[in-house]
Amino acid sequence: MKRTLNGKGGIRVRNIRLIARLDIKAPNLIKGVRLEGLRVLGDPKAFATRYYEAGVDEIIYMDIVASLYERNSLGDLLTRTARDVFIPITVGGGVRSIDDVRALLRAGADKVAINTAAVRQPELISEVASRFGSQCMVLSIEAKSAGPGKWEAYTDNGRERTGLDVLEWVKRGCELGAGEILLTSVDREGTRKGFDVELLKAVAEVATCPVIASGGMGTLDHMRDALDEGGVDAIAMADVLHYDRLSLREIRAAATDAGYVLRQDVGAAT
Known about the structure:
The chain is α/β, with parallel strands linked by helices.
């Protein structure tokens, strides 16, 4: 088991999660590079069910066109998925109010990921955490490099600048009550060139809540780098799963062999 110093001279076991990320342009699962050049892949519910049965720990559904319509349109998909998938499901995209959060939770979500609305109204983070618990409130951050050791937070699939420094925004988001950070490197997303480990490490050092790394995984070594060097708590994967570049069996085995502890008895994992 992977053990790291806990800051008090002792050690702690590193528990990590493997998460399948599915970007949706209703009604289809899509995939792009750097959040652009989208390609239709098929029925997202079928993919989610397959990943659940293969042993993934969690699912993320992200409505990537929600900002165009100012609402999340995944309610029906979420309800259908929740009937057959019995692991935590996070839903993001177009979540702008407490009513939106409530509707998604009723449809079957366990957590909501909020980006644009949190940037515009940071107090929404605290309100969601207070009403539904901090474990429900995932702060989604799309990060782009802004120079050596600096990153800016973006919205609208990496198109709109916010002027927010990612590290300062992470610290503030955690202070406001976010229970988790979904950190997407726009520069690496869909490239299969590996996670931005420097970004992950910088964020993990200032975050007081768990960090999910998203964007760039192409090999098992990329996962190990994100965990060992980046210090994140979870790995979100899309391309490597959607195109069958790696199986969840291989990914889980590599994480276990590296000494990490995975959620046990998930789905129909064998």
